[in-house]
Amino acid sequence: MTKLRFSRFLSVFLLLSSLIACGAAENGITQAPATTVPATATTASAGVAPTAELTPTATSSVSYPLTIKDSLGREVTLLAAPSRIVSLAPSNTEILFAVGAGDALVGVTKYCNYPETAKSIDQIGGFSAKSISLETIVALKPDVVFSGDESQQTVIDALAQANIPVIAIKAETFEAVYQNINLIGQATNHPTEAAQVVADMQARIGAVTAKTSTLAAADKLSVFYEVYDEPLMTAGPQTFIGQMLELAGATNIFADVSEEYPEISAEEVVNRQPAVIIGPESHGDKLTIDLIAQRPGWGAIKAVKDGKIVVLNGDMLSRPGPRLADALEALSQALYPELFK
Fold first, then answer.
1. Residue 253: strand, helix, or coil
2. Any idea of the CA torsion for 118, 12, 270, 261, to the nearest 10 degrees?
3. Phi, psi of 153 (to 5 degrees)
4. Residue 11 falls within a domain, yes or no?
């Protein structure tokens, strides 16, 4: 799948996520109709992060003017610490709150729903470029805008022409998430808080892998991660979802693909016989035992026969930010509850 196609898909995915409420269910793999692992919303999980190119010390401070190279390789100069910030992606919003810059937010997307305070901030539109109101952003007089990836290029260019600094943020791996958290911490004059978020996140991830690394190869569960069903899509190994499966002690049945989010055939899923099927709750209505069993040949899949379907909070799974630590904890506990008693 091309970057552009995935960006379009992501816009649809965010829309679907916003329409599905968080389900409450037991934290494990069960029979009926699928296991839904609820999102955690603790103060600790809202402030978690990793290491990056910009790794401040406990006594570091930021000097302005500050020039930063963003995720698209653009050099952006900030003349002073920003006091008015607009975020064009839910993951950016979560990072800004996590590093202590949430009070400076004056504009967010309609999908920015975490933490709860984000819902009360003025909205500038959706995630896709065509849904974002440039007029609203300009009227908010931001000192800086934190955008998404290339899918928002037209917005980035238009704001740059209006002399509004735009820092593009994108990530497909845990390491890139760590870098982005530190970058946003630097840009907003919260380097120490960002470094702590990174350290906390890495500590929690380390606590999980300390347990899952004890699994013998024969005990690792084979997993099919379903991003979407029409077209049928999964997550490759070079994404943070693919990395998360590995960290959780699972074997991604499509770990051999080179694309980030490839379209795959239903027949190939049947051939690879996953022991567990996992997906986001925004897609949960398609991931019931009854509906999956109706797909041609899928009734013979081990995961379907054993009723091992796990539905996780889609926001935690899909947003490259601090709550990836929450997602990893929920995923690993659902797969191997015996390790976390």
1. coil
2. -80
3. -60, -40
4. yes
The answer to whether 241 and 275 have CB atoms below 8 angstroms apart is: no
Q: What residues are paired with 278 via a beta bridge?
A: 225, 310
pLDDT in tens, 42-77: 333 333 333 333 444 334 689 999 999 999 999 999
In terms of residue numbers, what domain contains 149?
66-195
Q: How far apart are CA 292 and CA 277, in angstroms?
A: 10
pLDDT level of residue 292 (50, 70, 90 thresholds):
very high
Which residues lie across from 68 on neighbouring strands? 76
Q: Do residues 257 and 233 make contact, with C-beta atoms less than 8 angstroms apart?
A: no
Domain harbouring 98, CATH code: 3.40.50.1980
The per-residue pLDDT of the chain, averaged, comes to 86
pTM of the predicted protein model: 0.83
pLDDT, tens digit (0-9, with 9 covering 90-100), for 116-148:
999 999 999 999 999 999 999 999 999 999 999
Distance between CA atoms of residues 287 and 293, nearest Å: 10
| Dihedral-angle region of residue 66 (phi above 0 means left; psi in -120 to 50 means alpha; beta otherwise) | beta
Q: How many domains does the chain have?
A: 2
- Name the percent of the chain lying above pLDDT 70: 82
pLDDT higher than threshold 50 for residue 185: yes
Q: How far is the C-alpha of 146 from the C-alpha of 273, rounded, in Å?
A: 42
* Helix, strand, coil percentages for the chain (3-state, nearest 5): 45, 15, 45
